[in-house]
Design goal:
mainly alpha; de novo design (two linked rop proteins); 6 helices; about 75% helix; rod-shaped
Amino acid sequence: MEFWFVILVIILIASLLALVFFSSYTKLKKYKERMEKAENLIDEYLNKKLDLIIAINGDVKKVTGKKDYLKEYVSIRDLIITLYEKDLKLDDAMKLINDLRVDYQELSSDENFTKEINELRQINETLVAAKNVFNQNAIKSNQIIKTFPNNIIAKLANFKIRSYYNNNNKTDDGDTF
């Protein structure tokens, strides 16, 4: 009788541990998948943003007499950089475009340029939303990873603490694209 009782207790403890493991693992996996989806969306919209910056570069060249102000940013696609670095570089390009818009008033009257700027605003809104989704899921995931016994499960399943995206999309003069 004692033998079966010990076996039953061991089975119950093992079942409880398995339940805790799979519950924590499932939560962490869910947040990881959400962050990956948000990152894919960020990547997609950063590429759209880059495409628009390349198109705007053509408009700027027409107005400024073929001067290639955005040359450095047009080649970003060829660089091997993180999404965060790409985002920062494209934000720098946006600041330059805003400066060019102020310096060359003809750009503001160009219908194509205005359309592209409006598209950039929409892309930036989507990027901010995707970054917020990423950050919210990273916060939740990080909180789970930092608590016991989840930290052990996270280590076993190779889940890592994730850093957050910065949502600063303002130009120096406060104009938001």
